[in-house]
Input
Amino acid sequence: MSISRRSARRSVRILGVASASAALVLGVSNSALACSISDFSAEATCDGTNGVINVKDIDASGTSATVTVFLENNSADAKQVGKAQIVKGSKGGTTVSFSEAWQPNAEYRVHVVVDTARFKIDKDITPNLTTPSTACKSDESSSPSPSESASPSPSASESTPAESDSPTPSASDSTTAPASTSDNAPSPAVGESNLAETGANSNTGLIAGIAAALVVVGGGAVWFGMRRRGAHSGN
Output
């Protein structure tokens, strides 16, 4: 049974389409299993009160990669965060965590190294990781709130007696001030009372009366004596 030329062409065409489809599927599957730097991502989060830098690998090929994290300062490595860790990616993603008390708006460089027969990677995740603008909340920052709420009550109670005590000395001071002025005022009063007592209690009137009587008596005696002497001289 002979095959026509038309049938042969159709068969070749079908075979070519099948081969191209197989090559496309194989290429897609190979690219899906390829390991590249784009499979890695980094994020700064908080684990309770502790800062954490998470690096995620979504490489479906499961190729082992070494991840190292560095703190940056003026575009230079200031320090290495912990030790380098090995991660094997997965389709759902595999994450390795680095404990780090990161500061707000800090910059970190995440370096990935893959050295296998199939894949070679020695690159940084770009752009560099920048931490959030708010730091992780600590126990110390949460505890002061109740202490602060408790502290106002004693402070208010202390201020209340302080205010009640302050008026007392002010009143005593005001009492002392008038006392001093009253002490100054009576001094002339005392002098006046002494003068008054000198005039009232003294025997000046009595003495003056007695003196006047004595003068009268003396005068009378003198007059009587002179008269008597005159009488004697007349005789």
About this structure: The mean pLDDT is 74. Helices lie at 5-32, 139-142, 144-150, 152-165, 167-184, 186-201, 204-234. The chain is about 50% helix and 25% strand.
